């Protein structure tokens, strides 16, 4: 049974930092592209960042470039999202997702959520201004 479990969310002031982590089990982690999506109240789910199965390639939403960094540890089956210079617009439920060996334009978009094979239950990030 595949499980993706997110952690690290919380309340932070604007300009602060948080590090989200996603622990994966029940799948061959090193074969999966991992991604972070977010869903804010009243908005559609958004693509945030993705990293390919080997960790060689990454891609980010324009609004988080230079502030967020995605990384993975295939030995520990974890993928992290370091979030710096947080803004109130970053407030959302953040979800970890996995897609088997996908690396194409589709998964770099909000619609890429349809291409994900597995999802975690999310962790809440609240940025106060």
Q: Can you give me a brief rundown of this structure?
A:
This protein has 129 residues and is mainly β. The protein is 0% helix and 49% strand.
Descriptive keywords:
129 residues; mainly beta; seven-stranded mixed β-sheet; four-stranded antiparallel β-sheet
Q: Can you give the helix content as a percent range?
A: under 10%
Q: Give the total of beta strands.
A: 11
| Portion in strands | over 45%
Secondary-structure class: mainly beta
Gyration radius over CA: 13 Å
What would you call the shape? globular
Unreliable sequence segments: none
Averaging pLDDT over every residue, what do you get? 96
User: How many helix segments?
Assistant: 0
Distance between the termini: 40 Å
Q: What's the main sheet like?
A: 7 strands, mixed
How do the SSEs run, as a string of H and E? EEEEEEEEEEE
């Amino acid at each position: 049974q595949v499980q993706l479990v997110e952690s690290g969310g919380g309340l932070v002031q604007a300009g602060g930092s948080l590090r989200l982590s996603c622990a994966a089990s029940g799948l061959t982690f090193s074969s999966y592209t991992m991604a972070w999506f977010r869903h804010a109240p009243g908005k559609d789910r958004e693509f945030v960042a993705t990293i390919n199965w080997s960790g060689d390639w990454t891609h980010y939403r324009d609004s988080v470039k230079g502030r967020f960094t995605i990384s993975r540890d295939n030995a520990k089956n974890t993928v992290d999202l370091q979030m710096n210079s947080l803004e109130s617009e970053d407030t959302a439920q953040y979800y970890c997702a996995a897609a088997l060996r996908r690396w194409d334009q589709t998964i770099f978009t909000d619609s890429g959520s349809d291409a994900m094979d597995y999802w975690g239950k999310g962790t809440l990030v609240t940025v106060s201004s």
